[in-house]
Design the sequence.
């Protein structure tokens, strides 16, 4: 496929970064169909234009990059997604891996890295920036692996915890006793290898909310 046949949209809430990326893509022969300054605009462009690729920042107004991906896919989008962000912490990488994104680049990367990413994705390979330490990817993978230890019932409860729903309301929703919910919480803490303490599970669930809600 020629570069001109690779259609893209770009989304970032920093106008200069957005323009710079879009201009560079066009100068290198790619076809940029649209630019978005927030997540809602990005979602609209993706669903309307059906681009082959979409570059998304994570921290955008209205919908963040991960929410755009999740929503677009729920509506049947076949677009391939590349995150372009300042974030390289395992927490963000874990969210990206949970969503099975196609590429993850850092804003510090050169355009050569962007080109490499596009080429690898078009060849059917997932691509993570070479600036991301392999240990961070392993740590993110381990974080996801912990969730696989939970039963379906425990995942259901953890999702409700991540939505900041109280034990009593969880018990009411699932037609269980509060004591049963507390027992489940204790089991989840043990399986996730969390330190026991006041609200330890709730804090962990809120930090990893995006990952949990993709399960």
Sequence:
């Amino acid at each position: 496929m020629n570069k001109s046949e690779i259609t893209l949209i770009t989304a970032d809430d920093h106008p200069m970064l957005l323009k710079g990326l879009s201009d560079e893509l066009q100068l290198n022969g790619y076809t940029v169909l649209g630019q978005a300054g927030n997540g809602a605009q990005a979602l609209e462009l993706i669903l309307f234009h059906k681009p082959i690729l979409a570059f998304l920042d994570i921290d955008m107004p209205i919908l963040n990059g991960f929410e755009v991906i999740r929503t677009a896919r729920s509506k049947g989008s076949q677009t391939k997604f590349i995150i372009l962000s300042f974030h390289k912490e395992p927490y963000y990488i874990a969210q990206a891996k949970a969503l099975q994104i196609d590429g993850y680049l850092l804003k510090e990367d050169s355009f050569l890295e962007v080109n490499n990413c596009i080429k690898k994705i078009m060849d059917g390979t997932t691509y993570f920036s070479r600036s991301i330490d392999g240990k961070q990817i392993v740590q993110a993978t381990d974080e996801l692996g912990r969730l696989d230890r939970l039963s379906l019932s425990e995942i259901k409860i953890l999702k409700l915890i991540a939505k900041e729903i109280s034990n009593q309301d969880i018990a009411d929703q699932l037609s269980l006793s509060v004591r049963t919910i507390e027992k489940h919480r204790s089991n989840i803490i043990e399986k996730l290898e969390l330190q026991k303490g006041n609200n330890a599970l709730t804090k962990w669930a809120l930090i990893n909310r995006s990952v949990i809600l993709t399960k």
